[in-house]
Specification:
The structure is a single chain. By secondary structure, the protein is mainly beta. It has two domains: 2-206, Neuraminidase, CATH 2.120.10; 321-439, Type 1 dockerin domain, CATH 1.10.1330. It is 11% helix and 44% strand. The protein has six helices and 36 strands. A hairpin with a 4-residue loop joins strand 12 and strand 13. Helix 4 runs antiparallel to helix 6.
Length: 442
């Protein structure tokens, strides 16, 4: 009887009309999604997507080339989500007595939700992938873990084994892959696999565009030819590759790296996710808003003392010229450096010959402070650490107080200390910087 129940449940295909309805978001307002503990991003041949879950609700959005966002709630316990093209999938544990699971599918084009159910037990539910109406997930036998495949149309089951344990199953551009514990990646079919790349042993990976993944060390690995690029000073979750361009968000700056140079644009909050599609890049910010950038937005930005404001507190009237170190250089000052970065970090990213304290003594370790100087390519630059307007190396209430006085014309800031006050790197020092600096805790 149990076997008959399992077979009957396994072949069920239910379109959830009137059972589970999705709800559209307000445009460019993804506060609930951004607040989820784990947001997944995927840039594929259909666009740039983000998805997540919280409680019994799935959240999903396409950010580029157009905007579409929905959420829906389920009756069971959500275990994980996955993106494949325009579809967001959720793996849900329905019933412990029958070991029934559901895979919900959300179409981002129209918000329709459908559902497949199956019965299985003793498998890993933290990762899965759906391709061609087949689900791939990880099971373990007496020897090692392997990939199980189940075809929803026919309920055909198959087993794909490897020389090492399987650590993760994921989807990239509509195809399913398995990553082994030794870092090797295999493309999956219904009953076989093909080796495609190596991302390094015990290195967590994230999707970084079509046929691209990135590991925690910053290496972007191709799933086509195993070639690799490198991006520094960025969290792996906030990197996306499209048409030979590498987009990466670092603190309050979005970088565009090509084979020639790195350009930059400021963003008003930290990034939760970065996705790209052709020549567009979208950033989901921590506050739930979305900003979309085109290639032209990354041209070198000029600031003007009266541009868009009567505020005379401008940090510089010269061009902001990003450099391949991913710091910014202007008027003999190097900035775009955030609190906590060390002398060793700075040397690795700039090839600086020496770093000196404000009093001129050589320093070889410790945190950078505003007012330090560095010799790079035989030129001396003054260091400005974002938010460190007092030159103490931390961002705290003293910096907030000094900046408040400056904005009220009750204190003076100039040079690197004024540049340090421009926390969001938009070329002006104003109340927005004051708010951002007040949020920092060191």
């Amino acid at each position: 009887m149990k076997r008959l129940i399992s077979l009957a449940v396994a072949v069920m295909l239910i379109t959830l009309l009137g059972v589970c309805r999705s709800r559209a978001y307000d445009e460019y307002n993804l506060t609930d999604l951004a607040a989820c503990s784990s947001v997944k991003s995927d840039s594929n041949g259909k666009g740039g997507f983000v998805c997540a879950f919280s409680g019994n609700t799935v959240f999903s959005a396409r950010l580029v080339p157009d905007f579409s966002a929905y959420n829906f709630s389920v009756g069971g316990r959500i275990r994980s989500v996955s993106q494949s093209g325009n579809y967001t999938y959720a793996l849900v544990f329905d019933d412990a007595f029958t070991n029934k699971y559901s895979v919900y599918s959300l179409n981002l084009d129209n918000g329709n939700v459908s559902r497949n159910t199956f019965v299985d037990e003793n498998f890993m539910t933290n990762s899965f992938s759906v391709t061609d109406n087949r689900i791939y997930y990880i099971k373990t036998d007496s020897l090692k873990s392997y990939v199980a495949c189940r075809d929803f149309s026919s309920d055909k089951k198959s087993k794909i084994t490897f020389s090492d344990n399987v650590n993760e199953v994921f989807n990239n551009n509509g195809k399913s892959y398995a990553r082994l514990c030794d870092g090797s990646i295999y493309k999956l079919s219904q009953s076989s696999s093909t080796y495609v790349a190596d991302t390094g042993e015990l290195k967590n990976i994230y999707n970084a565009g079509i046929n691209r993944v990135i590991n925690k060390d910053g290496f972007i690995v191709s799933l086509s030819d195993n070639s690799r690029d490198y991006v520094s000073n960025a969290t792996a979750e906030n990197v996306s590759v499209s048409d030979g361009k590498i987009y990466s968000a670092v603190n309050y700056r979005l970088n565009l790296k090509t084979s020639q140079k790195t350009k930059s644009v400021s963003i008003p909050d930290r990034a939760t996710a970065v996705v790209s599609y052709k020549n567009q890049c979208a950033v989901l910010l921590d506050n739930g808003t979305v900003q979309v950038f085109g290639s032209g937005d990354f041209e070198e930005k000029k600031t003007n003392g009266n541009e868009g404001s009567n505020d005379n507190h401008n940090s510089s009237k010269s061009d902001i010229q990003p450099n391949n170190s991913e710091y910014l250089f202007s008027d003999g000052i190097v900035y775009g450096i955030y609190s906590g970065e060390t002398v060793a970090d700075f040397k690795n990213k700039t090839s600086a010959e020496n770093v000196y304290k404000a009093d001129g003594t050589l320093t070889k370790s410790g945190k950078l402070k505003t007012g330090f100087t560095a010799v790079i390519d035989s030129k001396t630059y003054v260091i400005a650490v974002c938010g460190d307007v007092t030159g103490e190396g931390n961002v705290n209430s003293k910096d907030v107080t000094l900046l408040q006085k400056y904005l009220c014309d009750n204190a003076e800031l100039d040079g690197a200390y004024l540049k340090a006050a421009d926390f969001n790197l938009d070329g002006k020092v104003d109340n927005r910087d004051l708010v951002l600096i007040s949020r920092q805790k060191n």
